[in-house]
């Protein structure tokens, strides 16, 4: 009988044995309780939110956690299973499981089991087999006492045939799903020691979080098991298992686990039971009294936009148009309310107001001298600053029509637009100053840049730079609208872009970015085109002094708009060095797009790292998968991503003269986008070239 036939027969025998066995499933009678004051809410780095708890009267029945000391580590109270993460939102719990292994020194099978309220997650886990000439299978019991067996075979006769990619396709590793309701299982390996190739001395079989495992050839060695201590992270689904559904639970208020108001009950999606969630507009812990607190939407303008007057209310918010206007303020379409008074009535009202004003002036005559003196002093200061900042020259340019799109704002106009530069209006800050969201008298929404300081040596050139800014007309550059010259440090006014910055979209606080590869490639191309335009398309080359993901804004359709370039005009630098610096910093933005990491990020050990430095090190050591975003590789393909990696490497070159121009970068990214949109063979796999 051939080796393959033996392997299939062994698989069938194992399946029959598991189908013939029976294991009783334990069931816990869960009751809703309230944690005592002073219960620990953390064990090491793991948060322990109720209904979980450590110690007497600190947990709901079945949710007890033990905390080992030195170092502190959390464990399930039964089964000695280490806990890595507890989520109230997803109702998931991440634990460490043993893997089955077989190397030259012997074979180790692995078994795992959990009791209520836990079940192994069918949506977050995959059963994975790693090795060559290896059959791995898993068998166990479901919560309805049904037996279950499945497995897969991984083959590879030559090292060159092993797939170099994060997914498993049967060459070096294979994967399969598990069913819902699984509460115990054992993993087995059948490893062909005779025909096993030398580059794959070990085989492994394990259940693990599918987002954790990424395959490469190094996983075929003994080091894979040693590095992970022969353990893997896996996900458990948890729920309140009794009563079996929301209607049954709500009929028993004494044991109903969803506490206080503002909660919602959802039936479990894995096994019997139910889950508690905070109602829409609330956040917190739905399992404790008063645990779901109202979200103040007015403090989160990026998530809950309002272009008028925002008023928070329980479970939501009201957004109304400013006085004298009407429309939908959440979409910025408020318009002036037409006057209901006829012209004679308005004229009569005007005369009445005039008489009242005259009377008021007479009444305030006693303090006239003080007011006049103060106003005169302030006016003189504004005129002095206006002249020093080149205001009169700018007016001449406007009258001569050399500048036709610049509006000169007064200090009072911008104060009104920003509620006197209220901190609530701040939408950005950086090394050059603060940016405020303002609403002008004509209801246009603008971004107002208030710089911290200015280079006195270049103040004389300020008006020339304003003229240069007024000439910029590019789809992917934030439009310059005007300036205020009545202060020692002039203020610049730009169009307001409503969808936030690329940084906010790439690095959300509570979940991974959902920005797809095609959109990232488009944003990179548009940004490069904008920077190339700034370098060459205007009368004088405009160099951007602060290229970063914070300064790449996104419109409603995710089109890029480069901002922040006005600041570079006031910084005395060598132009050639500056353009080289721009290309380097664009390279960092490109890295953020393909790795999903921040320019300065925190690694697994909690240390701050430079993304550019880490990238260059991993590329030099031929370890690209350590830093690239796996989802980007899957969506874009290795060949295409390799081209983007090459551009980033060139932009980050130590020698500035070796870096490509922004025009060349834009053209190459444009070609890659066209290539991405062309139909291509589904099974084609390229490879990332190491430079």
Task: Give an overview of the whole structure.
By secondary structure, the protein is of the alpha+beta class. The protein folds into five domains: 3-22 and 97-238, no CATH class; 244-283, no CATH class; 297-336, Laminin (Ribbon); 376-496, Phosphorylase Kinase, domain 1 (2-Layer Sandwich), CATH 3.30.200.20; 500-691, Transferase(Phosphotransferase), domain 1, CATH 1.10.510.10. The protein has 15 helices and 35 strands. A six-stranded antiparallel beta sheet has the order 3-4-5-6-17-10, with no helix packed on it. Helix 14 (638-651) packs antiparallel against helix 15. It is flat. The protein starts with a helix and ends in a 14-residue tail after the last helix. The model is unreliable at 1-34, 366-375, 567-582 and 679-691 (pLDDT under 50). The chain crosses the membrane at residues 347-367. ATP binds at residue 450. GO terms for molecular function: ATP binding; calcium ion binding; polysaccharide binding; protein serine/threonine kinase activity. It is a single-pass type I membrane protein. It comes from Ensete ventricosum.
